[in-house]
Structures are given as C-alpha cells and as structure tokens.
Hints:
The structure holds 2 protein chains of 2 kinds.
Chain A: E1 6-7, H1 15-18, E2 19-25, E3 31-37, E4 77-81, H2 83-88, H3 90-94, E5 102-105, H4 106-115, H5 117-128, E6 134-137, H6 155-181, E7 189-193, H7 197-205, E8 210-211, H8 213-219, H9 223-229, H10 240-244, H11 255-264, E9 267-274, E10 281-286, H12 291-296, H13 300-303, E11 308-311, H14 313-316, E12 324-329, H15 345-348, H16 364-379, E13 390-398, E14 403-408, E15 424-430, E16 438-442, H17 445-448, E17 451-459, E18 468-477, H18 481-491, H19 501-504, E19 527-530, E20 536-539, E21 548-554, E22 560-567, H20 569-572, H21 578-586, E23 590-592, E24 595-597, H22 602-608, E25 616-626, E26 632-643, E27 646-649, H23 650-658, H24 665-686, E28 697-701, E29 709-714, H25 719-742, E30 748-751, H26 761-771, H27 780-789, H28 797-809, E31 814-817, H29 846-858, H30 871-907, E32 915-925, E33 928-933, E34 938-943, E35 949-951, E36 956-959, E37 968-971, E38 975-984, E39 991-999
Parallel strand pairs in A: 4-7, 5-6, 7-8, 11-13, 16-18, 19-26, 20-27
Antiparallel strand pairs in A: 2-3, 9-10, 9-12, 10-11, 12-13, 14-15, 14-17, 15-16, 17-18, 21-22, 22-25, 23-24, 25-26, 28-29, 30-31, 32-33, 32-38, 33-34, 35-36, 36-37, 38-39
Chain B: E1 22-23, E2 26-30, E3 55-61, E4 64-74, E5 88-95, H1 112-126, E6 138-147, H2 152-167, E7 176-183, E8 186-189, H3 193-196, E9 201-207, E10 212-218, H4 224-262
Parallel strand pairs in B: 5-6
Antiparallel strand pairs in B: 2-3, 3-4, 4-6, 7-8, 7-9, 9-10
Helix pairs in contact in B: 1-2
Amino acid sequence: MATVIAMRKRPRGDPALIQRKFFKKTAKGKVIKVLRERYLRDDIPCGINECPYCITQQSRPLSLAVAARHSDYPAGHYVIPDTNIFLNQMDLMESPLFDAPLIVLQTVLEEVRHRSIPLHNRLKSLLRSEDRPCFVFYNEYREDTAVQRKDDESPNDMNDRAIRSAVAWYRHHIGQISSARNKGQPVPRIVLLTDDVANRRHAQTEGVEAVSVSHYVQGSKNSALLLDLLAAGAGDGDQGDKAKSSAIYPEHMSSIMINAGIKAGQLQQGHFNANDYNYLEASTAPQIYSTIDTFKGTVRVAAFPKPVLVVGRQNMNRAMHGDIVAIEVFPETEWRSPADAVVDQDEALKNDDADDTEAEGGDDLEAQEEARIATKLRDGSGKVKEESPTGRIVGIIKRNWRTYVCHLDPASLSSSSETSTSVQAVFAIPTSALLPRIRMRTRQAPQLLDQKILVTIDRWDSTSRYPEGHFVRSLGKVGGKEAEQEALLVEYGVAYGAFGKAIQDCLPPEGDSWVVPPKGHDIWKDREDLRDVLICSIDPPGCQDIDDALHARALPNGNIEAGVHIADVSHFVHAETPMDSEAAARGTTVYLVDKRIDMLPSLLGTNLCSLRPHVERLAFSVIWELTPEAKIVNVRFTKSVIASKSAFTYEEAQIRKDDQSLKDPLTQSIRLLNSLARNLREGRMRAGALNLASPEVKIQMESSESSDPIDVKQKEQLETNSLVEEFMLLANISVAKKIQETFPLTAVLRRHMPPPTTNFETLKDILMKIKGLKLDVSSSGALASSLDLCVDSNEPAFNTLVRIMATRCMLSAEYFCSGNVPRDTFGHYGLASPIYTHFTSPIRRYADVLVHRQLSAAINHAPLHASLHSKDYVERILNNVNRRHRMAQMASRASIEFYVGLAIQSRAPNEAGGVREEAYVIRTFRNGIAVFVSRLGIEGLVTFKHEIEYDAEAYAVTLPNGKKQKPVSLAVFDKVTVKITVEKDTTTQRGKVRMVLVSPVNSEAL
Amino acid sequence: MSSRVEILNAGGYRSDGRTQYELRSLEIILGDSSRPRTINLHDSASNPHPNAPDGSAIVGHGLTVVSARVFGPREPLLRREAIHDRAKLSVQVAMLPFSGGMAGRRRGRGDKRLLELGAAIESTFESVVQTGLYPRSQIDIVVEIHQQDGGTLQAAINSVTLALTDAGVAMYDQVVAVSAGLHSTAVLLDLTHHEENDMPHLTVAVMPRSGKVTLLNMEARLHVTRFEAVFKIACEAVTVIRDEMNSVISKRTTSLVASISDSAGPRNLRAGNEMDE
C-alpha cells in the first residue's frame, strides 16, 4: 500500500466526545488530570461483504447470505457477544460446533485484554482462524457508535452501553444495506449475547435484541453437545440453592485487603506449588515481588529462606498449583518440619460424592492426617529439626487455571447406562497428581467413561469442596497410545497441529527437488565454496534432522583448521513470515519416544536444511585456526555451501577412529578432531566446568515399524559424543562473543545462574552424615572437584547418583537478551564459560534461528531485521522459548515414563511377577521411601501401610523384618531391590508404576 | 507488560483512533487580531502598546499547544551584544506551570531541558532567517509551552516559523517540523505523549522548498536501517503540515489586505507576509 500521509481534522464539536478525561494517581500520591484525544472516524468498515457504504481494502469476512443455523433466526443472524461471554465461555466460542458469524466489538476486545491476557490471546487466534466468519468492529472510533461517559456512570456500565449502541447501529446499518440491494430478501438479525440480566433489560427498552448464552445455545443446531461446553454457573437462576449451603472454606480476602496486607508486611505473596509427594501439603516460595518490602529494608522474604508450608485443605483454601497467592504466616510456635508422610490423594479422597458437596463420610484418612499433624505440632516441638514456617492462604492474587487432561471417576457416575442423556454431576480426575478433582456436569458421562477428556475449571466457590468445571473435548480412549500421547502434548501446551497453508507457502516452491543453484546465482553472493572440504556429520542413529557437520585439516604452519558447519536455516526462514512466527511460537522441536513434533515444516527440517551426505547444502560455518593444543589462533564466520562426505553414527565414527588400519583422509580428520576435542575438554574441566549426570534412557522398540516397546536401555556415552559436543560448545561460545560484541543490547545469549548455596544444604547434610563426604559448593570448579571425590569403591553408581542429586539442586539454564541483564550475570555456571549462546541447532531450537540472523548481520551478510533491534521483542520471544523449552523437556520426560511403563508391562505380563530392579533410596519419609531406579531412569515411591520408625536426623527409616530377624535400617543412598509393576488403578484408570521393596525386606506386608 | 493500551492495534488504529500515517489536528492562530497594528515603534505616542510583539502564533498539534512571539528586528538591549554584519537571534523557552501534568515535573526558567530546547530552536533558525539583512539588530523569540501531549519541539518550531512570518522577518524558507517514531516495525507519525514514552522517536525539521533538513533530534537508539525508513516518512509528512500552515497564512494575508483596502486612507498598516511563493 502506498503511504498516504494525511491530517485528521478534529471536528469542532463537543470536546467531551473527542477528548477522554481521567484522573490518575501518581506513585507519590498526587492526583493528576490526564487528557487523551480521540479522533472519531466515518471510515470504520462494518465487515459485511455486500455493504455499499463502507470502503475498505481488506477482505470482508461477513456475508449477508448467512445460513440459518438457529431455530429462532430463520433469516440468519450475526452474534455480538459481550465481554463476559468471552471471559467465561471461551470454550464454547472456540468450539467448531458454534458456527454463527461473530462480530467482536473493540470495546469487548479491549476489555478482555485488560481482564485476562491468556483469554485475549485465545480470542486473537480465534479471530485469525480462517474457517470462522469473524470480524472486529472498531466501534469506539466510529462516530456513530462512540459513546461518552456520563457523570454517574461506572466504566462497566459505559462499556455495556457502548456495546448496545454498536448493536443498534449494526441493526440499522444492515437494514440500510439490504434495502439498498434487494427489498424482498429477509434481513439477518443482529443478536447481542449477554448473561447480564440488567444489560438484557436495558437492551430490551432500547429495542436491541439480547439473549442469554444458555437460551441461545438451546436453540442452536448442536445444542446437546454445545450445552456441555457451557461453563458452570452460566445458567440464569441456579444461584438460589448455592446460597443456602454453608461455606467449607474461608472466604478469600478482597484484592484491596491483600494489597494492604502485603504492603504492611502481614501477608506474603508467592507461587503456590502443590507438593508432588503429598497432596495435603504444599509449599509456597515467597518471591521478592513487593518492592515496598525490600524498600523498607525489613526484607521479610529473606527472613524465610525456606518455603512456607501450607498444610491441610482449610489452609490451602482453594489454591491450586501455579496460582499466585497471598499467604499469612503463622507465629513461630506453629512452625514445623516438612511432613514426612506420604498421602495418596486417591486413597484420601475416595468417597466424596460429586453431587453432594457436604458429604461427611470419606474424609477419615484426611481427618486423621490433619489431626496427626496437629498433635505433632503440639508435642513434637522438642524433637523437630529445622522448622519451616507455616501459614495459610488468605487470597488468590492470580489464578493459573488452564485446560486439564482428565478422565471421569467412574464411581461418581449415578447412572452409567449408555442411553442416558440426563445431566449428571461427575468428578473429573486430572492426570497430574498436583491437582484436585474437578466437578462438572455433562450429558455424555457414560460415553466419556473410558476416554481422556479435556476439562476447564470455571470457578471454585467457598461452599464447594471441589472446583467446578466443564467439558471441552475428548482426546480418545484411555491407555491408547494416541490418546495418551495427545494428552501429554495438551498437558504441556505443545502445539502439535499440522502446519497451515500460509506456512507451507513460505517454503521454496521447488519443494523436494530444491537444489543449490549453480555458481553465479544470488545465493552464492558472499558464500564460500566448501564443497571440496572433507566434511562429515556425526549423529545418533536414525537422525533425520542433521543440523551440524564438522571438518578438520592440518595447516602447513603446524596449526589445525577446524570447522563447524550448521544448517543455514535463516536462509529459508525469514523474519516476519508466517513460518517464522509459527516457529517462534513453537520455540523448539519436541521429541517424544515415538514422535517428533517439529518446529519447522519437515521439508526444511529433514531435507533442505538437513546436512545429508553427498548433497550440496547451504551452511553457516564457523572456522577456527587452532594450535594442536586447541588454543584458538583466530576464528571466522561465513555462509558457505558444503557437501558432506558421510553421515556417521556415534558408534560408526568411534569404530572408524579406533580402527588403526584405516588411513583415509576422512578418518584422519576424525582423529584430528578427536585429539582437539580432548584438549578442549581438558581445558574446560580445568576452568571448572561441571560434569553432571541426568538419567538418560532409551526405549527399545520391538522392530523399527511397530511402536511397542520391549526394553529400556541406558544411553551410552562414546568418545565421539563428546567430540561433537566439544566442538558445538566451542562454536556456541565463539558465536556468543561475536554477536555480543556487535549487538551489545539485543544479542540472544544463554546463561546458567550459579545456584544459591541453600539449595545444596540438604544434599550436603546427607552426604556428611551418611558418607562422611564434604561437598564444596563455593564455585562450580570447587563443586566439580568435590563431586569427583564423591566415590564409593563398593558402589560404582554412587557417584552418578550424587551427580543426579546435585543436578536437581541447580537452576536451569535460560536464554536472555544481553541488554536486559547486568554484564556480570552472563556466565554459564555449568560450562564455566563467561558467555554462551545456542547456535548449532537452528532446525530444532528457535533461539538458534535468532542467533543465526544476528550473526549473519554481524558479518554483514544480511541486514538485521528491525525486530531484532528491539530489546522488548527479543525478550518477549526468548521468554516464550524458555517456557516452551521447559515444557518440551517435561513432555519428553513424561513420554519416556509412559513408555517405560509399557515396557515393564510387556516384560512382565503377569501382574504378580513384576520386574525386579536395583534401586537407590533418595528420600525417606515417615511411611515410605522414594527410590531411584537407575537402569530405567525412573523414580518411584515405596509406601508402607503403617508408620515405621523414622529418623529425620539421619535420613533413615527402620523396617521391622519378620518376627525373628532384627529390624533393618535403610538410609539415603542405600541400595535396595524393588519389584516394579504397572497396575491400572481401578478408580483412576491411570497406568501407575507401583514399587514394592523386595530386599533387604519385603515390604508387601508392611 | 509495559502498557495496558495497545500502541497500534490489529486493525491498524492507534490508541486515539488515528492510523499510522495520520497527523493530529493542527490548529493555528496567526497573529493576535486584538493587538494594535501600528508599526512606528519610535513614535511612542502612536503606539499605545510598546511591548506588543511584532509577530505571534499559537500552534496546537492535537492537545500540545505552544505559542511563539517575535520581537524585532530591533536595537539590541545591550549594545555590546550587537553583531556588526547580521542580526542576533535569541530564543527563550518557558513552560507554563499548568502545562505539565502528563509530561513530568514542572520546569522553571533556567532548566537545562528548556535551555536545550531553546538552543535547538536557535540553531535551527539561525541558518534560515536572513540575518544579514538586519545588521546590528536583535530578534527575540519567546516560546511558551501551554499544553503538552507529545511533540513539544515540533510544535515549538512550527510556531516560531509562523511567528517570524507574521512579524515579516525575511527567511530563506519556512521550517516545518514533525515527530515520528518506530513501533516494532511500523512507523508512526506525530506522536502523543503516551506514544513517545513507548518507542524510539525523532523530530525532524525540514525546509520544504529545498528539502534541506535543518534539525534532527533523537534521544533513543535506533538502527541505521530503521532510522532511514522513519526519517523518509517524516520528511514526506512535513509537506502536509506546510500546506496547512500556508493556507492559514494566506487566509490571514487576504483578510489583512482586505482591511487595508476597506480603510479609508493608506495608513501604514503592516502587511501580513511576503513569504508565499
């Protein structure tokens, strides 16, 4: 579009209509008047295709010829929802079954944005979707529909009035259009959708058609299915019976009181984390949010280095995992050590009735537990070690509700006949053990019984024991691999849809047959020809997205030239294209056991950008001149064209290197690389890099075609693994330096903060008491060397176990924008490098794509896109990438866990036998132990039915061993044998790994 | 989140209803019709208001309102300040105490920010006013900021151009200024205070006839490739403001000419301007 610069003339009218006036209170408490101008226009389009009055260049999605989809509106209709519809009924609006054409008003859009950013994002993606007729009408800028605030009117009332006036205008406008076109045709109706009774009454007096959601849905085509999607409490008059039931939970404080309390230091704010091990106990780690607190210098938060414990339902007061809550800390006399019993939610809450919130029975175990805790508080004060602060939640600052993967609790169904379509209240049990059950009403309960379903929480009243939610959609049969896989993806928020047409259009039109054009083409501009260099790639077996390749050759001066060649993804993925924004949203490729959710379309990932052998590919090369001791003489970065000579697996490369009879140049270059890598690694270790272990296992499939797992193997580490790793690290560090130099404000970097020493306290204490070993955590180098000393000659796995436990004390690494954090916090703790980034896997990580763009600008190959000059933009993208990265990790871990379960099942089909594995105790409780099975890489709980002798000081439990033998004591790090079975819990239908101690004591009787 | 209000929403509208390249409403009051129009300054009897300015203009870009008054060319108050071959330009900027509100603290006389603003205006006009025509004299320009809603410098420069025109001071060309900013990748013109707070922005002053840039003021960091885009559009936008200013000038001139011919004798009423080409 040509740039048309024009001046908007302010009409000489009523200043109140063209200016917005409001009063603002400054931080100092001064009240100032703020004036904002508003230019009212007459060129805001209505979005109706046939409209002769509105001129617009954009495509107009709404058509006069709308099909009659609703029994009340035979001539067709448009729906204009008000704000609360989007806030409360987003699932309904998003459902493909709800297919009425939508007109979204600007007033509504902005109100949704102010109220909830996640909902606003969902609304935006709904507006973007191509299969729904939606249109945004900017009613506040159109002179006919703009309203002006009246003196005694609240902002909400004004917005409602604005919505009504827009609806009225549309009705008038559509009448004009249809009379201008054709007199005979029926005119579609404009329907205001609102659940606000007062708003509907006003609408009626103003002659605007308004209906409630439930009324509207009842008349629509798919009413039975749509009614399930209605959020709880959407009905008009079901508030009556709620009022009479008594409150179970204390009321939440109002936000004003919470703010005042936090300011006064009586309350603390923090993230609520439900405890994995124990449903009734949760911890809140107060964050240093309140600037006022820190400002005063009475840093309350620092007074509680340990998380505040919240024990019991009453104290948890409807908080759910991830919520930001306000917490009142109890006086010190009520502090206690973290609970040492394990309560299983399934056991504790078995007998609640979905219909009857006040069910008295069934809480025995819970009541017992609470009573026990209470008695312990009273009498155990002398013995309790290291008390943690306790507290109760008085208010929720921000809910973290989303859609949860659940399945129905069969016990809660009142009628399970297939044909029943009556509404039933049932319990949905979330897959995550951190969440309570959700009560919901559905008509399809019997059909959903063996399905994984998605459920959204709508509210949690103080009179209701459980949160109330509604059904969103079904994923498939429980236990089915497809459904479980999809459930995983939903649970971790992984976008797994196919790439849309707009994205496919960004790919080169030649598709599969794309080749590097002959020399002289534009692509060759500033590109080095490295096709003759002996380059090879080394990857895990079966790797399709090869994004790195290497080479090394001796130089005449005795030095060595080594190169790392990375797929030139930024040549194909340009900034601000649909493909780019999709990749940015996905953030990373997610690897599940038998599935890969790509970040980029597979044409790029596994073909055009994959550095396959014997084909020419575009690459981004980092080429060093290194001394034989691996000191960098110089480094250069260049875009290049390469032709990989071979794609090795780690194993092949290892064998080739070790085979002394092979003397070909390719093998020689691998040896050269290997010797350099060894030097590099040594140098890194000297600098204090950590060698951390995490349990990595590989699922072995029966055959390459089937996806039935048969066994689990630990991943092997070969010398060639570390060869590739060293060079990738070197490339990343070199690139990080370069882009930080060129773009000091917006360089995309990665850092790993040193962990606070308090994280290591427990581990240090355990090591000291049980093994007599000291752990020095003063620096990464000190930690590395003291970890090396943590060996037990009898127990080769002990060192690995300690490393795994140490890893859990660390913070996770994160991407950041260099202009937003102080220079001295750039360091990477684990790698002991002062600066680091990710450059080497642009096919599967989005941060690398950004780094590629910055590096190519840094070497003047291509200008840097404007967005990468903006700190805010980079920061926003990286925050998302960080989150996606974390989620992807959790998803793939969960996927492995699921398959480990399957593998165990397939190895031991008869339930009784189970699999016997060696395991190590990693935590002890009053009625159980947590063990780690290193061969399978899984962690499990062994629970005992009765309480046993428990020594919290020594991290040990003592188990009675039959009548004759003397009791056996088990402490952390002790080796035990456990029997692992997978059992389908009858109530939850969840495949659950169950572990029973076999030796030294058989715990089945305990 | 920095702001709850979207700078540029998905429909392409800014928070005040303008689109990307739309300028705010420009209000100009040229000269003060109520003041007496006698020109004989040396004859104090014929001039009941010896302190009245020789030219004045009030310019409002949206809610930003700035006035400028021009005194002179006249004899310098201090002899020693006279320059023998040209006129001396002196600019004073004042901010009215009630103008602040949304634009931070109140600024008194001698405030560094105001001095800088004055210096910027002074250096802009030194090359434009034909100072050589008025040797050993002084031209005083007083700029007063009445209301602020972004684009103060732009409004100040435009008002000074108009006031100099009104005073009949000879200039090589007009100077017209406009502000522009970059929101992510979109260029916005004529920023409000709210928009200025949220993005890198610059003010350009251009002589529209020759296309020469006499002032460029930017306080943020902007990459050179992006800068070019913003700069080009700002330079184009200047012509829109110029046209608006010229239509006001010619209207005023027409009314002055009309009042000359209406009045009986050839009284030495001051002509509006001799600027229009």
